[in-house]
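Record format v2
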Amino acid sequence: MINDKNLTTYSTSDVVNYYQYLQQLQPAEETIIQLFKHELPTMKMLDLGVGGGRTTPHFFPLVRDYIGVDYSGKMIQACQEKFTRSYPSIQFMVGDARNLSQFEDNCFDFILFSFNGIDYISHKDRLKVLQEISRIGKSGGYFFFSSHNLQAIEKQFDWQHHLSLNPFKTYVNLIMFAFLRGFNASLTYQTIKENNYAILRDESHNFRLQTYYVRASEQIKQLEPLFKDIKVYSWKTGLELKTNDDRISCSDMWLYYLCCIK
Ligand SMILES: C[S@@+](CC[C@H](N)C(=O)[O-])C[C@H]1O[C@@H](n2cnc3c(N)ncnc32)[C@H](O)[C@@H]1O
């Protein structure tokens, strides 16, 4: 079960600094800007889990209204320090995606939860977040987010996958494997293979975060009751993964999802 140790991690100064200096859009985010370039000027956008504001300078100038929200007060403070001088009308606020009661129903045209922000809460809370997003998003509006790909990490739990003809590479791989298994003692290759989602500690921020990994088919199933026209994108190429086979064979560590609010 994920508890708010993740919030503690997202409030520590080394992690806040890391996100504060990120600048580049990911290829799938560039795809979405191209796709919506004619609609963005009329859109009211919520940038959920805004972190240190990596996406802010890319989206703020393009949309009609922009609000950045994060549950880490330190991240919000970093955004305010970084942007309010150049963009005095910009809004940032502390808020938790699990309870967005500060926002009315049907008030956003475009909601972004970028770079896997949705993966730091429990399964039950994730479903609550999807409900909240469909409540505050306008019918016909869009939700775009990314989530870790269980398909991609699965192999890393198989020790045989780490063997290489190069002995040094094998040595380094097996050390990383030992860390992964050590931090996730209850998870085996077999249990991961048998499940559609799993919560685990990966190497990001030195195994300090509990992270939700999901298969694309399961993610689509979670979205279907509330959203339509669901599309999946490779984060690395920005290209749409149109078929189930495309998604199963994609080894990207996370995938982007675009969907329309019902
Ligand atoms: C991996 S960082 C990504 C930050 C930023 N979106 C980016 O792309 O650089 C995930 C962000 O989501 C935020 N986050 C995680 N769970 C959240 C929640 N329940 N409500 C709001 N923000 C959350 C974290 O504080 C963190 O800033």
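The chain has a mean pLDDT of 96.
Residues 10, 19, 22, 48-51, 54-55, 70-72, 75, 96-98, 114-117, 120-121 surround S-adenosylmethionine (CB under 6 Å).
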